[in-house]
Amino acid sequence: MNYTELSVATQDVMPNKGVLFFKSGLSDFIQVGEPIQNEDGLTFVGKLDECGDTFCPNCSRKLVKNGSLESTLKHVAIGGIHTNIRVSYARFRCLNIDCQFNTRSQSIPFKADGYRITKPLKEYTEKLLSYGLTLKAVACDMNSDFEEAFKGRYPKLDIVYDRFHIIKNFNDKVVSEIRKDEQRRLAEEGSPEAAKLLKNSRYIL
Fold first, then answer.
1. Which residues are within 8 A (CB) of 183 and not within 5 positions of it... i.e. 6 or more apart?
2. C-alpha 55 chain-centroid distance
């Protein structure tokens, strides 16, 4: 499957109130429900297939499931929208009390080594860079993995952060913290009503 050509012809779609949602395009990803769309973009939620036995690398006995972990990876943009993959994967442990093996987690087959992005996104990025003989700058969000991937191929490349994520980061890390400090100050000074007004003012500010 060509991950960079996410069209109706190559992808299944899911109708929801008259809107068509693409599936992620990842064959090893078991999608759960419809993708979530919010101010951060589109997020596909799912898990890895746990079929098949897993054996201890130390004593060769069968491992049992011991909870699960979750990871969020950047994926190829769909319809010009920032896309994430939120995947749950199993953690296993050995029942042999004499074994020194602790726990083992499933590997995520579509995760790019060394980055919190999917392999299709890394491949897509590398293909874009391969055409960039005169490339001087690239715009991306503030995910450090993107910058490292670009800089790894073109060290002199200028990174331009997109306006949306700069503003979002400023609101989350500066404006919200000031609002919380003011709320605490008003409460300590005996103005609970004023503090209460600030409590639900995140999106107003």
1. 195, 198, 199
2. 29
Q: At what angle do helices 144-153 and 119-130 cross, to 10 degrees?
A: 40
Range in 4-8, 35-39, 79-83 the model is least confident about: 4-8
Q: How far apart are CA 150 and CA 93, in angstroms?
A: 38
Per-chain mean pLDDT for the chain: 77
Going by C-alpha positions, the residue among 96, 99, 124, 129 that lies closest to residue 110 is: 124
User: Does this model's pTM top 0.85?
Assistant: no
CA distance 148 to 159: 10
Q: Are the beta carbons of 94 and 53 closer than 8 angstroms?
A: no
Beta strands in 79-163 (DSSP E): 81-94, 103-105, 137-140, 158-161
pLDDT one-digit tens code per residue, 83-117 = 999 999 988 888 888 887 777 788 899 999 888 88
Closest to 71 (Cα-Cα) out of 41, 47, 97, 96: 47
Nearest to 82 by CA among 43, 108, 110, 118: 43
pLDDT tops 60 at residue 205? no
